[in-house]
């Protein structure tokens, strides 16, 4: 199965593509969104094989999306603007579909994707089976201005603290504030080594220097451990002892 998402800021266009995806065997619809930032998070988390991507979108255009995601997934562009075709193919897109998109043309694009992208089933790890290494050891977080994204190495992340709809991400020698929830960040990060220890905190267990009762320490920073998360933390610690 090829895991697909539809990204289009026009709800009608998105609904049409979703209906097309659901008609074709071998495609799994992971999600549909009008928000390219949300779609980028899915791609960074390794949850997507093929993106059906609009070009003209606020906040992040389709071409900017292509620059950021690199080779982490394949893309089929869907747009009403033929003048962007050459730019799209410079980013190695699978196909370029002009709106309004007929089903037979959509199907041909999907067949190209199925020929190019191996639909590999993801095995479920058995108990005590070693976890596969991280293949993309970084993520992009939204910066302090429009269309600004910062690349952060996972190995540099110490911990993150929720600030409502924002969060503070503490990396080696730096504090980054980004418009993202802690839940959204947790979905992007491999677990372990990253773990929620409190409703307001996520930590890298590789950076913990001490655990004392209901508190973990990363350097001089004392981070509370919520009752809901305590058992999971200590289970992981015992497994690594």
TrEMBL record:
SMART domains on file: LytTR (SM00850), REC (SM00448)
Record-level Gene Ontology MF annotations: DNA binding; phosphorelay response regulator activity
Protein keywords: Phosphoprotein
Keyword Zinc in annotation: no
SUPFAM superfamilies assigned: CheY-like
Transmembrane segments annotated in the record for this chain: none
InterPro entries membership: 2C-system_Tx_regulators (IPR051271), CheY-like_superfamily (IPR011006), LytTR_DNA-bd_dom (IPR007492), Sig_transdc_resp-reg_receiver (IPR001789)
Keyword Transmembrane helix in record: no
Limits of the HTH LytTR-type domain: 146-212
Pfam families per record: LytTR, Response_reg
Domain of life per record: Bacteria
Modified residues (4-aspartylphosphate): 54
Domain Response regulatory intervals: 3-114
The protein's name: Response regulator transcription factor
